[in-house]
Amino acid sequence: MSTYNERDLLRLAKRFHNTKRTYLLMNPLQAKHLSIQPAKTIEMFRSLGEKIKDSYDGIGLVIGFAETATAVGVAVAEVISKDCIYVHTTREAVPEEGNWIEFNEEHSHAVEQRLSGTHIKEWIKSTKSIVFVDDEISTGKTLLNIIAQLKAIYPEIENKRLIAASIINRVSEKNLAIMRKNGIESVSLLQLEEIDYDKQVENFTIFEAKESEYLDIAVNYEEYEPKVRLMNPRLGVLVQDYRRNLDEFVEDIINHVDIQGENVLVLGTEECMYPAIILGERLQNTFNANVYSHSTTRSPIGICMDEEYPVKSGFKLRSLYDDERTTYIYNLSKYDKVIIVTDSKMITNRAIETLRNALAMSGNSHVLMIRG
Predict the structure, then answer these.
(1) N or C: which end of the chain has fewer CB within 10 A?
(2) Under a CB-based contact definition with an 8 Å cutoff, are residues 167 and 64 in contact?
(3) pLDDT for residue 330
């Protein structure tokens, strides 16, 4: 199990036009907003999983929070037990599910969250402990909101051990006491004191990410649909089945590409982070390539050129999941090849064009879209 300090896991950015919370804590190892070699990301995720596994038993259900912790949650679940269920919350429309448990993430740019409810009663019944995984817990309100909803519908959850797991925990003693009163224990890789980050970002002068523009540059763009389709963790998956599915998905792609010695970006899309991270790790190991990973995001983050500021460039995109929605990509660099991994079933040409144009504006001329 690796250990981490604040310098390893924390970069401070300023949110663009968010008055509820002006700052954003960015983890440079998480492969979300900032690019990183995926092996380092997986090592961090699994360190959290090992800490939970060493401290708690009887865990049969792991719930991750969208969008940033979707990958953290499944990696943690893999370490705990291949026999447990993993499900993550979502903000996406999922036609296969008609029974949602809804709750709010009050400080977020996108407040509404929901959890698949069709099988949750049987999942709760068959476990002694439930782990809720987020990348960062600051007040515990989101966790209290979802647990209050679950308790109202499934009173049997009162008899379960509830664990709040996060990479960073900076919940005050007062709020920790409220969590404990509600039966919630907590475990994290890094415990921070309460700090006024709003004040710390006051002096950053930021501007908005720019629109992705059409450039008359030839881009070698290809799409590939693997024979193996990705399972949907928004609906809940048995961890061993999901990992087998991911391995087969990645193997199919490995047989399709050749990136010997190249510099490669594997880019996830919004809630679809983990398949991109796992593919990136396999590409690096298979081809001895220099591989990085991060993903598009709903988070509007300010751009600033100050030396210590983490986000120095960004583009506004149309979401691959809903082209009426704005998403973002930050700190794009030039690579020999960019591989996009998405689980969106309906992608419009307009959405593809905005992402392809952003990549072209950053010097990328070889793009492969994997439609999982």
Answers:
(1) N
(2) no
(3) 98
Q: Answer yes or no: is pLDDT of 107 > 80.
A: no
Q: Once rounded to an integer, what is the mean pLDDT over residues 253-279?
A: 96
Give the residue from 191, 115, 197 showing the smallest Cα distance to 157: 115
d(CA 41, CA 361): 27
Token pair for 116: 């698949």
Sheet holding 184-191, edge to edge: 184-191, 161-169, 129-137, 59-64, 85-88, 237-238
Beta pairing, strands 100-104 & 11-14: unpaired
Indicate if the pLDDT at residue 111 is higher than 70. Answer: no
* Integer Cα distance of 289 and 291 in angstroms: 6
Is the pTM higher than 0.90?
yes
pLDDT of residue 156: 94
Residue type, 178: I
Model confidence band, residue 308 (pLDDT cutoffs 50, 70, 90): very high
Which of 266, 296, 295 is CA-nearest to residue 281? 266
- How many helices (H) and strands (E) are present in the chain, helices listed first? 10, 18
What spatial distance separates the first Cα and last Cα of the chain, rounded to whole Å? Answer: 32
Does the pLDDT of residue 217 top 80, yes or no? no
Q: What is the DSSP string of 117-155?
A: -SSHHHHHHT-SEEEEEEEEESSSHHHHHHHHHHHHH-G
CA 259 to chain centre: 26
- C-alpha of 185 from chain center: 23
Task: Tell me how far the alpha carbon of residue 277 is from its chain's centroid.
Answer: 10
Residue 283's alpha-carbon distances to 8, 29, 30, 222, 263, in angstroms, are 25, 18, 18, 18, 11
Distance between CA 214 and CA 6 in Å, rounded? Answer: 40
Based on the number of CB atoms within 10 Å of its own CB, is 365 exposed (0-12), middle (13-18) or buried (19 or more)? middle
pLDDT digits (tens, 9 = 90+) for 3-12: 999 999 999 9
| 179 SS3 class | helix
**How many of the other CB atoms lie within 10 Å of CB of 100?**
15
C-alpha distances (whole Å) from 266 to each of 61, 110, 273, 289, 335 are 29, 25, 10, 12, 10
Q: How many CB atoms lie within 10 A of CB 305?
A: 11
